[in-house]
Amino acid sequence: MQPTSSMNEEFLKKWQMGLQIFRPSIDNTSVHERKKAIKLSADVAMASLRKGTTCWSRALIEKTATEDNFLVRQMLSGIKAEALINKKLPKKIVCHRKIVRRSKKILRRKSKSASEEAAAKAKRLVKRRTQGLRNVVPGGELMSNDVLLLQETLDYIVSLQTQVNVMRSIVDAAEAEIDQR
């Protein structure tokens, strides 16, 4: 799934808004502080595209609100910023009990054949990879349901692709302007 041009445009508008909010305080700062301002505003712009409907976007909003509450309130002004900022993420997002019970039964069985050992090894590999996703996707550590984690990961990837597209367009435009001079 590719990001749409409307997603790119909306991200750019929100990102510009965030950079304008930082503009007065960033002029006489270090490169590190400028980088942080660009990242914070890009994160909030990306999360605001989803309007807090995904776990990763709420996690990014919550994290950014602790770093710069004013920025988050300004950028989310049209989508009930107070509700999103004050809305705490659940400690765990759990799957249905039937699935949990069935998986516990499967785990209790002892693997003796080569195919069962291979299945156990594959299961460990999948578990390690999903843990890696949990560490990368904002709010991923709160998701115990692997299906939800994959859905959130796919949505997060599309949003990151939007961010990359917009930033790449800005760099291309800047290079074209330099070439014309």
From TrEMBL:
Residue stretches making up the IBH1-like N-terminal domain: 5-66
Annotated localization: Nucleus
Keyword GTP-binding (UniProt): no
GO cellular component, one term: nucleus
Molecular-function GO term, any one: DNA binding
CDD domains: bHLH_AtIBH1_like
Protein name, UniProt field: Helix-loop-helix DNA-binding domain superfamily
Organism field: Arabidopsis suecica (Swedish thale-cress)
